[in-house]
Amino acid sequence: MSHDIDNTKRALRADLRERRQTLSQAQLEQAGQGVKAQLDALVERLGARSVSCFLATSTEPDTRPFVEGAVARGIRVLLPVTRADGLLDWAVAEKDGGITEGMFGLPEPTGELLGPIAVNDVDLMIIPAAAVDESGMRLGWGRGYFDKTIGSMERCPPVYAVIFDTELLPDVPREVHDQPVTGIVTPTRTLTFAANDR
Q1: Cα–Cα distance measured from residue 187 to residue 21, given in angstroms and rounded to the nearest whole number
Q2: Distance, CA of 6 to chain centre
Q3: What radius of gyration do the chain's Cα atoms show?
Q4: Does the annotation place 148 within a ligand binding site?
Q5: Is 11 annotated as belonging to a binding site?
Q6: Is 12 annotated as a binding residue?
Q7: Which CATH code for domain 2-196?
Q8: What element of type H or E holds 35?
Q9: Statement: the pTM of the whole predicted model exceeds 0.85
Q10: Using CA atoms, how far apart are residues 115 and 112, in angstroms rounded to an integer?
Q11: What does the entry list as the binding residues for ATP (predicted)?
Q12: Which of these, 56, 129, 118, lies nearest to 87 by C-alpha position?
């Protein structure tokens, strides 16, 4: 059974990745502007003073303008750094902070590493996703870093996944270790799932 789910996930991720690669630079820039506006409003609504976010890849809605704006407003932003043991480390985003290519070719900060438990103090987590379904179940990219992080937190803050509008699906395949999210942020809206309101 698990093998079937794994194959279904793999096929869905491949389809979603292919769709993202067909987006033009103009569409990606517009998506990034929309996501920044939605994230700014979400941070304001929640009164978040410390957040975790990720540095988007070239086919994701760009999160860097949001991160830069948040840092400029005095909000503490933690950025993830992948580790070989399957855990995420964290570094504080800084104005003009360096970015390097981390494991799996992902953009990551070059600052001082704070350890995996640093994320326990944030008011809001903003994470990547391939898709999210209407119940709030998230389909990640298959490495399990964020599922592991969310699943291990004693007091998990609200968790919002950034996706394109077309990536909110009726249903996504799920396994026992998969973690739901509180809501999604797309270029046009922010949606909170009532069942997962942490």
Answers
A1: 17
A2: 21
A3: 16
A4: no
A5: yes
A6: yes
A7: 3.40.50.10420
A8: helix 25-46
A9: yes
A10: 9
A11: 9-13
A12: 118
> Which residues share a beta bridge with 92?
78
DSSP code of residue 57: -
Residue by residue, pLDDT tens for the chain (198 residues) are: 467 878 888 898 999 999 999 999 999 999 999 999 999 999 999 999 999 999 999 999 999 999 999 999 999 999 999 999 989 999 999 988 788 888 787 889 988 999 999 999 999 999 999 999 999 999 988 788 999 999 888 889 999 999 999 999 999 888 888 899 999 999 999 999 976 544
Task: Count the helix, strand and coil residues of the chain and give each as a percent rounded to the nearest 5.
Answer: 35, 25, 40
Q: For the chain, which residues make up each domain, given as ranges?
A: 2-196
Characterise 175 by phi-psi region: left (phi > 0), alpha (psi -120 to 50), beta (else).
beta
Is 9 annotated to bind a ligand? Reply is: yes
Packing angle between helix 64-72 and helix 25-46, nearest 10 degrees? 40
